[in-house]
């Protein structure tokens, strides 16, 4: 009997390695506060400020508690919706090793409601919010849907989920789209809070490089405050364009795209490369304009910036002049991100009068001009053009005014979106940082060549690898080992260095890590053909790793990267 009791006692004992870590709660008196309710500190490395993200720093008040091992934090929106827990360490937060401190980055304006932490020492007392760094406000023309939570009725493949329609990219091939063959074919995005919406942009199959016969033919866009009651804001029944722009005036938290006819043919698959939502300000609205000429007194250049395109023939700028140009003066320098042109069809005229060929130029002084957009075969009634420029003047030059021999240029609206004032130049955080790789093809083609800021020095100005792994790792080396916020990666492939485009990297992924041990994938591309590929992310880390899985468009085994660039929020 004694032996049995002894054995029972032994079997009931929990080995030391299986003991749960001590847990401490968040100090209850801090629950319910937003970031602006705590002492501000944006000075420490890694604290920000960041665009659209508040940084929260947590601390263990007593030495007996030791250090943080992990945190689980709960936040809610100003409207009272509780969000999924934030787990630290992870993509949204990190623990500062050797200190009783941890930090997370979350959507601006959230309130903390609860939390628990694993600690290395004694579970006495609580842990607290010690300081915060408030977000930089979003610029007016930020895509409000970018990287927001998205769900859909279905997806064609694991790599074609709804999150691909709001990742800020449409050039990564078939795995860079949301695809659905379901009966209902819908995509829903949660903007996170009630938002003023002014415009939708949809990038259909053709925008992603697929045949335009796969462009969505019929669809509608709905909005809702609660994801239960929906109001239809946009209805389209006969689209053929690869990119469509839809103006609205509404306030909503949820946006739903319903596809009723997925293609121009009988193909049953819906293909959406990007759903963008904007609440931006048109910088050209009612600004001073000049033009080469006008067809009538009621059709002067001011009609192209009056904010209206539905007032009939007198609501457009019209020109039959030899040069056919329209110029807008913002009054001061502006950072420009997007230009929208509304052609004849947008004003109710026959689409045969839509501008066929034109270019858009930018200038600081109205003397020296830089061409930002060139279009040679347009047929659409509304065209949207992404740019990155700083200018005071914008000029639209029309070279072929219609689809026919009609000589009249007809522009119902020229809209320019961005931000008043100039933004500082982008800083490549990977420039000249320490880099290692699995291998290199030659002594002159080591990994440091991919972060030297140059891609025009010939074959010795690239990193090249024929190894089995084909990986390149860069240590961004932030002060104190803290994480940095990356919003954009740029890769310059073989063609950017002057080599044959058949050597451009076809498939690759980009990963980030806080410690070079645990990695999370932030970019996956399976069918690239471009010389330069740009990848928008919202990620944090100290280390960046590029893994090349298909090094060329052919069977050539060599990976060739002329430059890997990493940029923070601008």
Keywords:
six-stranded antiparallel beta sheet, globular, disordered N terminus, 1 helix, 42% strand, mainly beta, 2% helix, 570 residues
Fold blueprint:
Layout: H1 2-12, E1 23-25, E2 33-34, E3 53-59, E4 68-76, E5 86-88, E6 93-96, E7 101-107, E8 111-119, E9 128-133, E10 150-152, E11 178-180, E12 186-203, E13 218-224, E14 231-236, E15 243-261, E16 270-272, E17 274-278, E18 289-291, E19 317-319, E20 325-342, E21 357-363, E22 370-375, E23 382-400, E24 409-411, E25 413-420, E26 435-437, E27 463-465, E28 471-475, E29 484-492, E30 507-513, E31 519-525, E32 532-541, E33 543-550, E34 559-561, E35 563-567
Antiparallel strand pairs: 1-8, 2-8, 3-7, 3-9, 4-5, 4-8, 6-7, 10-12, 11-16, 12-15, 12-17, 13-14, 13-15, 18-20, 19-24, 20-23, 20-25, 21-22, 21-23, 26-28, 27-34, 28-33, 29-32, 29-35, 30-31, 30-33
Structural class: mainly beta
Give the helix proportion (percent range).
under 10%
Spans of at least 5 consecutive residues whose pLDDT stays below 50 are 1-18
Shape: globular
Q: Mean pLDDT, as a whole number?
A: 88
Total helices: the number is 1
**Radius of gyration, rounded?**
27 Å
**Share of β-strand residues:** 35-45%
Description:
With 570 residues, the protein is an all-beta fold. The strands form 9 sheets. Strands 10, 12, 13, 14, 15 and 17 form a 6-stranded antiparallel sheet that branches. Strands 18, 20, 21, 22, 23 and 25 form a 6-stranded antiparallel sheet that branches. The protein has 1 helix and 35 strands.
């Amino acid at each position: 009997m004694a032996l049995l009791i002894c054995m029972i006692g032994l079997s009931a004992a929990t080995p030391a390695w299986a003991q749960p870590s001590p847990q401490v709660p968040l100090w209850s008196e801090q629950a319910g506060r937003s970031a602006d309710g705590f002492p501000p500190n944006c000075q420490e490395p890694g604290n920000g400020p960041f665009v659209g993200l508040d940084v929260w720093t947590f601390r263990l008040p007593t030495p007996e508690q030791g250090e943080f091992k992990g945190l689980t934090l709960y936040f809610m929106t100003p409207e009272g919706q509780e969000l999924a827990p934030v787990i630290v360490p992870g993509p949204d937060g990190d623990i500062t090793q050797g200190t009783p401190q941890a930090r997370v980055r979350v959507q601006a304006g959230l309130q903390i409601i609860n939390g628990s932490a694993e600690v290395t020492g004694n579970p006495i007392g609580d842990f607290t919010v010690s300081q915060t760094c408030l977000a930089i406000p979003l610029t007016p023309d930020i895509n409000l849907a970018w990287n927001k939570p998205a769900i859909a009725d279905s997806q064609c493949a694991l790599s074609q989920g709804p999150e691909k329609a709001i990742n800020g990219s449409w050039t990564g091939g078939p795995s860079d789209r949301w695809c659905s063959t379901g009966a209902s074919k819908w995509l829903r995005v949660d903007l996170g809070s009630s938002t003023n919406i002014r415009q939708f942009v949809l990038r259909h199959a053709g925008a992603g490089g697929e045949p335009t016969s796969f462009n969505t033919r019929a669809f509608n866009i709905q909005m809702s405050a609660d994801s239960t009651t929906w109001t239809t804001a946009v209805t389209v029944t006969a689209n053929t364009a690869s990119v469509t722009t839809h103006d609205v005036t509404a306030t909503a938290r949820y946006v739903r795209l319903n596809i009723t006819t997925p293609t121009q043919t009988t193909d049953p698959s819906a293909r959406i490369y990007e759903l963008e939502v904007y609440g931006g300000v048109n910088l050209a609205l009612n600004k001073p304009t000049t033009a080469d000429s006008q067809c009538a007194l009621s059709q002067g250049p001011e009609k192209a910036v009056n904010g209206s395109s539905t007032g009939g023939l007198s609501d457009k700028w019209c020109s039959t002049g030899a040069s056919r140009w329209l110029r807008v003066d913002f009054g001061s320098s502006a950072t420009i991100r997007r230009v929208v042109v509304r052609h004849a069809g947008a004003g109710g005229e026959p689409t045969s009068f839509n501008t066929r060929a034109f270019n858009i130029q930018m200038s600081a002084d109205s003397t020296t001009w830089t061409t930002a957009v060139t279009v040679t075969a347009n047929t659409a009634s509304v065209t949207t053009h992404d740019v990155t420029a700083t200018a005071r003047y914008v000029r639209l030059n029309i070279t072929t005014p219609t689809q026919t021999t009609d000589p009249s240029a007809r522009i119902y609206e020229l809209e320019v979106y961005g931000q008043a004032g100039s933004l500082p130049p982008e800083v490549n955080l990977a420039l000249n940082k320490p880099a290692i790789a699995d291998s290199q093809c030659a002594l002159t083609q080591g990994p440091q060549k991919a972060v030297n800021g140059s891609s025009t020095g010939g074959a010795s100005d690239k990193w090249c690898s024929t190894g089995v792994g084909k990986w390149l790792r860069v240590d961004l080396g932030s002060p104190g080992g803290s994480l940095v916020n990356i919003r954009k990666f740029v890769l310059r492939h073989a063609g950017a260095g002057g080599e044959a485009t058949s050597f451009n990297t076809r498939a690759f992924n980009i990963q980030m890590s806080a410690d070079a041990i645990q990695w999370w994938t932030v970019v996956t591309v399976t069918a690239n053909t471009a010389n330069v590929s740009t990848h928008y992310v919202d990620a944090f880390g100290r280390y960046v790793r590029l893994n090349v899985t298909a090094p060329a468009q052919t069977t050539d085994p060599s990976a060739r990267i002329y430059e890997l660039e990493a940029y923070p929020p601008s």
